[in-house]
Design a protein that fits this description.
The chain is built from 11 helices and 15 strands. By secondary structure, it is an alpha+beta fold. It catalyses: L-seryl-[protein] + ATP = O-phospho-L-seryl-[protein] + ADP + H(+); L-threonyl-[protein] + ATP = O-phospho-L-threonyl-[protein] + ADP + H(+); L-tyrosyl-[protein] + ATP = O-phospho-L-tyrosyl-[protein] + ADP + H(+). InterPro entries: Kinase-like_dom_sf, Prot_kinase_dom, Protein_kinase_ATP_BS, Ser/Thr_kinase_AS. It comes from Fistulifera solaris.
Length: 345
């Protein structure tokens, strides 16, 4: 039996994207950007008094290439970074037009800088540094040459389980590392998962990330159709990311989102409340994989399994013999020719 949700229970304050948490002091002059403990200059990044990069990254050290991604407030290009010692690396160069923008834009930038600096994970995109140029702030990030999981899903449609397993395992490693540092991603979706030809899978775009549990009055940030239902009705924590993980894995397996018709936050709650989990999982796949998805998509967050527990699933350890990062990357490398085949069709 399905249950109707009381629309009056929605947290209307949370839907306001200009909530109090975004109204923080901001200062900018011709040489520095200062906001929420972050200072960025022409060749340095300083976070809460600690200088994280100085002199290595500046406009003259980068050669920009083609656009590889666009967001609401940013643009990402592939680039070549020449270090002081002459070494050249391929990087992703993310450009923010935030100086004259809203407090929301500045907060997104600062959240991403703080999250990437704090986590220092091999399963989350690495931040090399940032600098200020006129009205733009540029972040220099690790480059993943196969692009997003979203593009891979569109090309392969329903993936083979042998491909899903190493991808899902590494996403969980990224979530585990974020959660252990008290960070919630809050916008996990296929477009924010990147792949490389080395078999690496890493989380990116931490502009929505948050430190600690969020209260009922916290701002709702993220993509509606990947958002956990409790995000709009009560306090939420790291297990809201697990809901998003379950949807990402579902999409990898089936080639489609289970709630593809969701266009708004109200749609999200109504659709989830009226959905039957057994019906959603009626597609054919290994029972262990279904269990992982089911353990992630409980409407009650307390019934979901955290990342460190899901990583111990027999479906990873026994069915696919993935017990660590090395095994996961080895297996994904084996599957990469299949991805390339679909891209060339």
């Amino acid at each position: 039996m399905t249950r109707r949700i009381d629309i009056l229970s929605l947290n209307i304050d949370a839907i306001n994207t200009e909530a109090e948490e975004l109204n923080c002091s901001f200062h900018s002059d011709d040489e520095h950007f200062r906001y929420e403990g972050v200072t960025i200059g022409a060749d340095f990044l300083r976070l809460e008094g600690e200088t994280l990069s100085r002199g290595e990254i500046a406009p003259g050290s980068l050669q920009l290439g083609h656009i590889i991604g666009k967001g609401a407030f940013s643009e990402v290009r592939v680039g070549l970074w020449t270090r002081k010692n002459g070494d050249v690396s391929t990087v992703a160069v993310k450009d923010f037009r935030v100086i004259s923008g809203s407090s929301e834009r500045r907060s997104m930038l600062v959240r991403e800088l703080k999250a990437l600096t704090k986590v220092q994970s091999d399963h989350v995109i690495r931040l090399y540094g940032a600098y200020l140029e006129e009205t733009h702030i540029t972040m220099v990030l690790e480059y993943m040459n196969l692009g997003s999981l979203d593009a891979t899903i569109q090309q392969t449609k329903a993936m083979k389980e042998a491909m899903v397993a190493p991808i899902a395992y590494q996403i969980l490693l990224g979530l585990r590392d974020l959660h252990e540092k008290g960070i919630m991603h809050r916008d996990l979706k296929p477009a924010n998962v990147l792949l490389s030809s080395d078999g690496e899978v890493k989380l990116c775009d931490a502009g929505m990330a948050s430190l600690g549990e969020q209260t009922l009055n916290s701002t709702v940030l993220g993509t509606a159709k990947y958002m956990a239902p409790e995000r709009l009705t009560k306090s939420y924590g790291r297990l809201s990311d697990i809901w998003s993980f379950g949807l990402v894995v579902y999409e990898c397996v089936t080639g489609k989102h289970p709630f593809s018709k969701i266009d708004s936050l109200v749609d999200l709650l109504v659709t989830v409340e009226e959905s039957d989990l057994n019906e959603l999982l009626s597609f054919k796949c290994h029972s262990g994989l279904k269990e992982i998805i089911a353990c992630s998509l409980h409407a009650d967050p307390e019934q979901r399994m955290p990342a460190n527990i899901l990583l111990k699933s027999p479906w990873f350890l026994l069915t696919h013999e993935i017990e660590n990062t090395r095994k996961a990357r080895e297996q994904l490398r084996i599957m990469l020719p299949l991805i390339e085949k679909h891209r060339n069709l």
